[in-house]
Protein 1
Amino acid sequence: MLTLSLLRHAKSSWSDARLKDFDRPLNERGLKAAPRMGTFLARRRLTPGLVLCSPAVRARQTLKLVRPAFKPGPDIVYEAALYLAAPRAMLKRIREVGADVRHLMLVGHNPGLQELALELAGSGPTKELEALAQKLPTAALVVLSFEAESWARVKPGAGRLEVFTSPKQLEEEEMERSQ
C-alpha cells in the first residue's frame, strides 16, 4: 500500500504589495496553523519518506514548521515545477517516485492540490469527500491510500481518502474535547 499526503501551504500574507507571489511569506495565522498540522501528523504517525515541496516562500515556511513532527526526518526535495502546478503535472511527478518510498508528501498550492486530490480520490467517507470538493483551506491536509506497489501505477479514482482535515477543524475538535 502507498500513502500520499497533500499539504496546502498555510495562510500567507498579502501585506507587502511589492513582493512577487512566489515571495509571499506566511502571515500570523499561517505561522500558528502549520505547527498545529505538524502536531496532528505526529499524533497520527503520518511521517513521509519523501517530501516534494514547492520552492515558494510560503510553502517552504509551512514545511519548516511542520517538519519537527517527522521522526525520522524525511528526504526533502524543492521542485520549481510544483509552484502553482496543475494536477496533471503533479501526477506525472508522483509517478516518477521510486517504489522504495511508501509515503510521499507534496507541499504546494491551490487550485492544483485540491483538483489532484479530487481526481485521485475514488472512495472514502462521503462527508469528507463532499467537504474536499467544496474547499481545500490553507494548511489543510489530505491523505490518500492506494492499493498499488509502485507510484507508476497510481491512477485517477484509485485512491481512498483516509484523512481530510484543516487547522480550523482541529481547533474545533480540541474545543469540543475540552468542554
Protein 2
Amino acid sequence: MGDIASTVGPDAAPSRAAPVAPIDRLYPYGEMVLAVVVRRWLTSLVLAFTLVAVLVTASMALLRPSLDWDALAYTALALEQPGDSAEALHGKAYATVKSLVSETRFKTLTEDDEYRRHQIQSASAFASMMPMYRVKIGYVEALRLLQPHIGVLRAAHVLNITALLLLMAAAIWWLDRNKALLAAPLVFLVYLSLQGRDVLEGILTDLPAAGLTVAALAAFAARKPFLTAVFLLVAITVRPDTILLAIAMAITAVLFAQQRLAALLTLAACFAVYFWMVASVGHIGWWPHFWFSNVHIQNDMSGFAPPFSFAAYAKGLARGGFMALAYNNWPMVTAMCLTALALMWRFEIKPNRSEAATLLVLALTLGAKFVLFPLPDDRIYLPLVLALILTTLGPIRRWLSSQPRGGAG
C-alpha cells in the first residue's frame, strides 16, 4: 500500500500535458466561419444550388431530347390544318418525327411491336387514336401556337421548362410558408426520382399538368381560392383527369367548412370546361379508354366499344398495382411520407388544419386516380406525391424545432 500511495500522493511527479493538435487551435475559427455561413447564407446557397440543378437538368433536355410514341400523336395535332385527311395527318406526323430523332430511334418508334407497326402502316388506325390526345385541348393549342415559330419539339421544350419553373416556384413558395426552404434539394431529388427527366425531355402533357397541379395545391394549402381556381381550370385543359382534384378539393372544403362557396363554384366551372372538352372532340369515353390503356391495347379504336366487364376491370387494376409496386417509385415515396406522418402523430406532432385538409385532398385524389384509371407510371402521380412531400415537411419542421438545442456535455 505504501508503494502505491507514493505514486499518487503529493510527492508524485506531475504528469505531462497532452499536446494540442493544430486542428484544435483552428476549431474556434472554423466554428465562427460555419456560424456565419449557416446563419446568414445557408438558405441562399441551398436555393442557388437547387436552381443550378434545375437549369442543368433543363439544359440536358434541350441537348438530348427523348421522344416516345405519344410524340407522334401530339405532333400530328400540332401540325393539323382544317380539312386534313387521315393520310395527310399521318404523313406529316411521321415525317416530322423522323426528322427529329436518329434512324435507330425512329425504327424503335415504328417497328418495336405490333401496335407501332400497325400505326405506321394504317393512316385510319392512327387517326382513330387522336380523340384520346385531342381532348387535352390546352396543351394541343399551345403547341399549335408555338410550333410555326420554333418547331414542335422546341415548342414542347418551352412548355416543359416553363412548367418546371412554375412547379419549383410553387414548391419554394410552399417551403417558405413552412419555414423549410432548406429542403428544396430534397424536393427536386424526389421530382427526378418520379420520371422527372423523362417528362422534361419529350412531347408529353405530364410536366405542364404537374406544374399547374402543384401550383393549384400550393394555392389551396395557402387558402388562395382565386389562384386555386385559375390553376385548376388551366390544368384540366392540359390533363382532363385533373377534374378528380377539383372534386376532392370541393369535398374537403365542405367537410372542413373552409371557403365552401369558392370551392363549389370552382368545381362547377371545372365540370363545365371538362364536359365541353369531352363533347367537342368526340372522346371515346372512360371504359374504352380504360380497356385500351389498362387491359389490352387496340390497333384501331374505330367503333371500339366493349361491354363493361368486372373481370376486365379487376385485371386492369391488378396489373396497374403490380407494375406500380414492381417498377415505380411513387408507392414507396407515398408510404414513407405516411409513415413519417404516423410517427409524428404518435409523438403528438400533428398536421395543422390546413395541412390536414391538403392531406385529405391528396388521399382522395390519389385513390380516385388509381382506382378509376390505374396507370402505374411515376409521371402520372408526380404532382400529387410532390405535394405530399411538401405537406409532410411542415410537421417535420415543427418537430425538429421542438427538439432541445445541444448544451454542455
